[in-house]
């Protein structure tokens, strides 16, 4: 009674490949670069501002 369910699926094979030491360093480096690029891109986006209400002239105090 062994728990072998046949050939592993492609995702499991990819994960097994990615966690072996030489590849894991590359996967980690690619992840860091991806986070850096996405955060840099998000920082360069301009926020969408709603149009400012029309400015009215300040009224002089009545007294």
What general form does the structure show?
rod-shaped
Q: What structural class is derived from the secondary structure elements?
A: mainly alpha
Radius of gyration: 28 Å
Chain-averaged pLDDT:
84
Q: Major β-sheet, in short?
A: none
Q: How many helices?
A: 2
**Fraction of helical residues:** 40-55%
Which consecutive residue ranges, at least 5 long each, have pLDDT under 50? none
Determine the strand fraction and express it as a percent band.
Answer: under 5%
Describe this structure in words.
By secondary structure, the chain is mostly helical. It is built from two helices and no strands. It has helices spanning 10-18, 21-44. The radius of gyration is 28 Å and the shape is rod-shaped. It starts with 9 loop residues before the first helix and ends in a 19-residue tail after the last helix. The model has no long low-confidence stretch (mean pLDDT 84).
